[in-house]
Each structure stands twice: as structure tokens, then as C-alpha cells.
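Researcher: Next sequence.
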Amino acid sequence: MRANSGGQNNRPNNRQSNRLNNKLNKTWPAKVFPFLKWVHEVKDTWKADLFAGLTGAVVVLPQGVAFAMIAGMPPQYGLYTAMVPAVIAALFGSSRHLISGPTTAISLVIFSTVSVMAEPSSAHYIELVMLLTLMAGIMQLGLGVVRLGGLVDFVSHSVVVGFTSGAAILIGASQLKHIFGLRYKNAPHFTENLKLLFENINHYHLYSMIIAAVTLAVVVGIRNFKPRWPGMLIGMFSGGLLNYGMGWYNQGVRVIGALPSAIPPFSLPDLSFHSIHALASPAMAISMLGIMEAVSIARSVALKSGQKIDGNQEFIGQGLSNMFGAFLSSYASSGSFTRSGVNYSAGAKTPFAAICAAMWLMVILLFVVSFAAYLPIAAMAAVILVVAYNLIDFHHIVDTVRLSKQDAAVIAVTFLATLFLELEFAIYVGALLSIGLYLNKTARPKIFPHVPEPGSRQFVADPYLPQCPQFGIIRIDGDLYFAAMNHVETHISTIHSYVPTQKKILILCRSINIIDLMGVESMVNMVKEYRKNGIDMFFCKMQPEVMTMMQKSGAVNEIGPANIFEGEEEAVREIVYNLDAKVCAKCPHRVFWECDAKKRQNVIDLSKRV
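Model: Next structure:
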């Protein structure tokens, strides 16, 4: 996203407002009502926010209708979702530029989940979608209230890339029947949808195909030659004008139909126990997917604006927006990358721009309600194909495959799970695999022997440098917690087996930032076990948090305070001084600086004896 001068000027405004915000942050009203932090700025920024809101309303008009089609909802519900959640999330979120509304991935999850329970666009279907939205919002709000916003950090970007890529294929496959003007009910699975397409392809409708081709050509052409223009909106209107001008709406071309009121009506979810039980798992998947999208988009825009994002507050904002939206005809929403980027680039200063976008959208709808009666579904399908294509992050996928096999595996597994499993399970599979790989990595801290470089105190892991026959140094790079201790103990034992004559071992702890009770107990037991075999174990350079844990647990007393040093120099000097002088006298290597002094002392002692 390229920011214009309006967007760039956000930085000084943010700096000026930060001083006031720091004072407001300390008061409980600002914590409960985050909009109190910026509402006083609106008197100076309303013009910029009003213009940014108009730009965002134009962008979301075709998107809202298209996303509603993906979700199996009547088209007006996509526009309602672009209004209500955007306002609530702006008032209760932390980002100044995040715009919430319907998204492709969530729309697809909704369709795949609810379409097996009710007929899409039916009254019962809408009630179930509202219930699903309400449940997802409650879950998001709960996670934010108990301050578990950091959970989203454990789901890697590769999961999102794999899921959205798979969703793009599913979305494209589901719209092909509209491109060809075919009429059959979509199957719940990807392969079945393709089978239905091939079975019915002979019944294609020529006029629908022409409209889709023209719409697609207009959207792609504008995207390549006039990227700042609202290409999807112009493409959608081009398909509608062609349909109206040629009179094809009377010759079998299916149309959206006239839209009802621009004001979102009150809606009531289906609150039956059976429905709540059936939608519990999909609601959790949608809540996690929604907050992943919202927080990642908010942070990416914040990198440009210089703003600090509160992840927990974003959870609360997204949760409230879905809870309110469920009673005002809005289905599950999240942050929109396109709208948020456009909002920032258009010069938005405060979240008031999101409120302005909702008001502009209501005004625009008053003028396009009648035109929608001639808007072809084939034109919307062509727009959705472009949206689906944009979901696939080819650049990131290529870089990931080239640089990281683990992340590439996460993308591949999540992608395939999205195509061939239930969508909510695809999210769980990708997230669990991502977390599993992370835990496996942290449970395998690097452990290697260290020796000083000749002529310096710089410790290196060089297997070709000579080792002291009495004294070994081992470095641990990573945290010591329950899952890592078996690996740590095994590798220390393996390293010691290379030079079994070493009776003193120094553990370098400067790269250990966290240790749990299991880690403490394992280290104490290892020290005791080595002592039984006549081997002393020492530790140095413990981080303050690690040292505090060792002291509180009593491990320092069991290991012995004399075996724990603050610095490496002190530890090496003390340990070398207490090595067996006879072995040092015969040793051909000068591993430590102290070796020369030790040998000279040995010569003096021998001469005195003579």
C-alpha cells in the first residue's frame, strides 16, 4: 500500500495525541470506552476522515455484495456487515485505521458450515448465521477480557497463507457455475463441486458467459492501467449496463434483484440448544480466524502509521462488533486488508473515518437499490474470481518454499486440509501443526562444546580446536522447560562422552532466558548424578530471571553457591586453578590463558621438591 501525503501526515498527529492518550490510558473510562482517546481530535480531522470514508464506501460496495454471495446470504447482508461491525470495531478497537466488515475467508467458512444445515439465503439459514456470528463474537470478547490476545501470535502467518490460498480455490470453484450460467446446488466438498461442473457444462448460458468475460476484462484492465480507480465497482456496473442495454435479463440471465432498505433491520438468531451445540466448533474457528485477520492487518498498517496496537483491545472490538452485528443483520466480520489500506492511503486520521464510511454507504445504497435489479450474478461471479485470485500470496509462497521447509510444510498441509476437510478443521490442523513445529524447535535447544580461540578469550564451537582433558565448557542456547530437558540431558551426556576424562564441566547460561520448575529439578538431579561419578558441574552467566528461580526453588543451595559464577572469566580462572597439576604438567595443549601460569607453578613446585 502506498500512502499519500494525507497518510504520511498521520505520524506527527499521532505523536501529539500520544501525550494526551498516555494520560487518558490511566483512567478507567478510557479503558472501557477506547474512543475517548481520539474523539476530541475529530473537530480537527473530520474533513480528512469524511473523504477517506467516501473512498472506503465506494470500495466496499461491490465487495459486500460479492462476499454475501460467497456466504450464501442475500446480497444486502454483505452491505449491512460493512456498516454495523465497522462502526462498533472503530469505537472499541485500538487501531486508528482498521476497517472491519465481510471477508472472503470467513464468508466461505460460514457457507461451508451452515449450508449443510439449511438452504442458503432462507430464513432459517439467516438465523443460523446470526447465531454463529453471535457465538464467535462472545468467544472473541471473552479472549480479550481475560487478556489472551497473545494467543494469536502462536498461529504463524504460513497457516493464514495456506488457508487463504485453499479458500481462494474453493471460492473460484464455487463461482464457476455462475460464470457459465449453470443452475445446480453447490456441493459441500471441492471435488464434488468440480464433478457437478463437468456434468452440467453442456448447459452453459452464452449471455451469462459474455457478461462475465466483459466484467472480468474491465476489472483486470483497470487494475493494470488505472490501479487507483475502483475497478471492481466499474466492472460490476459495466456488466449491469450490458445486461440492461441488451435486455438479456429477460433472456435467462440471473440477476441479484432489487435490494431492500439501506438501514440494517433488527434480526434474531436461532438460540436453540441444538443449533448452539452444532455451531460451537465452527464458531471457535471463525473467532480465531477473525482475530488473526484483524490483528495482523492492524499491525501491518500500524507499521506505516507509527501507531501502537493493543491486541487484547482488538479482540474486544471484534467481539463486540460481531455481537452487535448479530442483532442488526450483519454476519461474522473481521478486518479488511483492502479497505484498511485504502482508508490509510486516503488520509484517515481517526477511527471516525470508519463511521463515515458506513454513513456514506447508506447514502450510496439509496441510489443503487433499483439498479441492483439488473445486476447479473455472472458479473458478481467475475468480480469474486478476481477477489479469490488476490487471496493467493504467490510471492510469500515462493519465498517460503525457497527458504523454509517447515513453513512450506505448514502452508501445504493447511492448503490441502482446506480443500479436502471441513474448513474449521483445516484451520485447527494448520494452527496445531504450526504450534507443534514451534514447540519442537523450542524443545531442542542448541547444545555444543565451547573452547577459547587461540590467543583470545572468544569462545567458539570449533570441533578441531584442542579440548582440555580435565575441564569442558558447554553452552546451552535456548530455554529450559519440561519439554526440553530430556534433550538437554542427553546432549550434555553425549558431549561429555567425547572427552570422558573431564572431571569439571562449566555450563554457559547466558542464552537461557526462561527456566521452569521441571528445568530446575532436572539440572539439580543432573548435578547430583555427575557428582556420584566424581564430576563437578558449574554454572555461569545466569540471567536474572533464571537466577531468581534457582534461588526461590532452593537449587542454588543444592548445587552449591561456590559452583555458580557471575562471569565467564571468573569461572574459568577459578576452575583452571583447581585442576590436577600433574595432568596439567603433561598436557601438550594451551587451551586457556591460565594454563601457562598453571604450568609455571607446576615447574616451581617440582623444583622445590628436588
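Model: Residues 446-609 form a domain with the Transcription Regulator spoIIAA fold (CATH 3.30.750.24). The two ends are 84 Å apart (CA to CA).
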